[in-house]
Each structure stands twice: as C-alpha cells, then as structure tokens.
Design the sequence.
C-alpha cells in the first residue's frame, strides 16, 4: 500500500478543506482520509508541502492517430499499421506527461484505436468512437466513415456497436480542417441525425455530434445527441447563440465540449492560412468564442474540457491544461472547470465507475501539483507527480 498526502485537495466535485491522504493498493484507491490522518503502519507516503492533490485529467476530445502535423489527418490513409500505432503511442505518452490519465478518442483511422489501444496495460485509459460517421466527401471522410442515407447511417451505427465502440461520433457539419467542406453547411438532414441517434441509443451507445454552424447545432439538439463537439454556432454573419437554444441544450442535459486550447508557438504565432481564411470568413474570433462559451455557462449548459488535439501543429497532444486555462479565461469558475476535466468528463465518457474522482474503489489516477488550482488554474502546469493506475509516471 502507498499513500499520497497534500495540504490542498479537489476530489473531482468539491474542495476537501482539510487536505487529503489517499491510500492506494496497487492500482486502486482504497481510502480517502483527511490530510491530518495517520497512514497505516508501514505505508510509505508521498508528501510535498504546498501541493494540491486531485484526480487525473480527462481529455474528452482528442484524435490519437493524428501526429499534430500540418497534414495530420490527411496523411493517415497512406500510413502502415505500425506507423499509426507508433503515432498513437506517442500521443498517449504526451497526454500522460501533461497529467491526462484518460482520453476520449473521437476520430479513428481504420479502427486502430478501437481494436488495438483501448486495453493497454499502461498509460491513459482510452474510450473510442472508431471512424467518425460523415457524409460522402465530407469532413474527415478519409478516415473511412463516409455514408449516405438513413439506411446506411443505421448500418454504420450497428457496425460500430459490433466493433465494440464506446461512443458514436457523427459529423453533422463541415470542418475547419477539411478545407474542401463548407463549415457553414450541414452534412446530414434532421431526419438522418435523428435516425443515427435513435439507432445508437437503441444499442446503448451515446452520440457525440461535431457541429460548427448554428443550424447543425439546432439539428443535433432536436435529435437528442448526448454531446455537441465545438458547438460553435457560426453563421454567415459570425457567431450567434440564441438564448432559447442555450436553454434547450441545458434542459436536454446535452454536454458541450467547446474544444478550446491552442499553441500558436508551434506555428510561429500564426494559424495555417486555410484555417485562418475560414475563421476570417466566418467571423470566428477569439473574443467571440470566449463570449460564446461564457454564454453557455451562464445558461446552465454542462461543459467538459477537451482540446481536439492531434489535428494540426497548434493542437499538440498534451494541450488539455491550456484548454482548461482558456475555459477559466472565458469566465467559468475554477472549480467548475476542474470538474469539467475530471468527474463531469468521466460521466460523459462512461468512466465514472473507474476514474474522475478521489473515491475508494476507483482507479488510482492522481495529480500532485505545486500550488492551488482551485484558486490559480495555472497550477495545473506545475506538475509534481502524475499517478496513472497507481504508478508514478516516470518511475
């Protein structure tokens, strides 16, 4: 048995005012005691004064097959199986180094993650969608999930259920990284999205809907999806978030992953020209995005943290702490944002029985950071130790 003690603690849902002593037996949390509690005889305890202990982070939107290069997704169909496997391994190590102990992969190439990377003995826990369902020649069609029509959509959902996916991903609109698509256009009718959701729910699977334009968000809400990815609400005249739509998302309990976070230093401070052109054309500004996320929060929408990592150089794997900081800068309180990347994300990803909280019986996925992230969110960038399934990473 091992112990981890800290003066400050966030258990995934609330602050523990007396700090915490977490007891771990192999890979499972077996006790959560006040910080002043004595450890059992013979139990070594890791303790650094001034540190905070919390659950490991969960990245609710990543693309593990993507290598964060300029052509990260377009290159995938031409790669050998071992090359894609190597990229997935590199991605998972980068996530873990940033304190991410679980991920939701929402864009797989040729079932790589679903078939070969969900049951790894080490590294982040992985839930996966398989290739995203998209339209013919639509956003990310190269990943292998392009279909047309209601019958084909229902068949695609059944295929994913048979392959054992954890979530169904549907591209309801074009995307910024597929410049041959129109980011303002819907890729499926309302009836097609509803059929996809009905089939997935019949088979016990949640649905994550990629949606940029306002019309695609509205169709996704009407269809009853479980989460909306990006949820940009873009129109020909810029971002527009009708209050009644926000109310409908909140009332339906649909979770939004705004996929914040960007590292422009990897691009010399500039976005790729095609991406910048799309953003300029649609009016998707940094200020507009922050105001949009703030409005969602004020309207009672549940937010989760994810970063869309792997898709281009500004979205490297391990970016989640930056996305969390960005959400705080949108005006969302620290504790709400921390929950969005731990307990709330665990529930969305179907992992609440395994991780996301400091609770006996869950996986020993823990972070020790210098400082107090409930007051200073930048503390997430000052990692003292990452514990994944009971093992201190790097030892």
Sequence:
């Amino acid at each position: 048995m091992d112990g981890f003690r800290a003066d400050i603690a966030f258990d995934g849902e609330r602050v523990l005012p007396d700090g915490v002593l977490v007891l771990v037996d192999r890979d499972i949390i077996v006790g959560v005691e006040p910080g002043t509690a004595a450890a059992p005889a013979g139990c070594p305890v890791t303790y650094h004064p001034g540190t905070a202990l919390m659950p490991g982070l969960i990245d609710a939107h990543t693309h593990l097959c993507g290598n964060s290069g300029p052509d990260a997704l377009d290159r995938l169909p031409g790669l050998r199986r071992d090359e894609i496997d190597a990229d997935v391994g590199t991605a998972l190590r980068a996530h873990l180094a940033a304190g991410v102990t679980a991920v939701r992969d929402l864009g797989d190439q040729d079932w790589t993650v679903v078939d070969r990377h969900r049951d790894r003995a080490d590294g982040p826990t992985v839930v996966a969608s398989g290739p995203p369902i998209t339209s013919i020649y639509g956003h990310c069609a190269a990943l292998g999930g392009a279909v047309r029509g209601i019958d084909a959509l229902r068949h695609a959902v059944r295929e994913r259920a048979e392959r054992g996916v954890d979530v169904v991903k549907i591209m309801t609109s074009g995307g910024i990284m597929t410049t041959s698509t129109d980011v303002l256009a819907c890729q499926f009718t309302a009836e097609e999205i509803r059929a996809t959701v009905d089939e997935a729910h019949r088979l016990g699977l949640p649905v994550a809907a990629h949606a940029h334009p306002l019309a695609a968000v509205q169709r996704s809400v009407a269809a009853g999806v479980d989460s909306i990815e990006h949820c940009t609400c873009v129109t020909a005249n810029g971002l527009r978030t009708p209050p009644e739509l926000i109310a409908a998302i909140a009332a339906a309990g649909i979770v939004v992953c705004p996929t914040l976070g960007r590292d422009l230093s990897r691009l010399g401070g500039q976005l790729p020209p095609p991406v910048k052109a799309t953003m300029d054309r649609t009016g998707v500004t940094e200020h507009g995005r922050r105001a949009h996320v703030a409005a969602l929060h004020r309207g009672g929408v549940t937010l989760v943290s994810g970063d869309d990592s792997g898709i281009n150089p500004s979205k490297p794997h391990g970016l989640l702490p930056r996305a969390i900081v960005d959400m705080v800068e949108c005006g969302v309180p620290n504790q709400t944002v921390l929950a969005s990347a731990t307990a709330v994300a665990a529930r969305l990803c179907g992992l609440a029985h395994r991780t996301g909280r400091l609770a006996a019986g869950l996986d020993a996925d823990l972070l020790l950071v210098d400082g107090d992230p409930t007051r200073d969110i930048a503390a997430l960038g000052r990692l003292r130790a990452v514990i994944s399934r009971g093992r201190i990473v790097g030892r």
Remarks:
- The two ends are 17 Å apart (CA to CA).
- The chain has two domains: 2-55+356-392, 57-348.
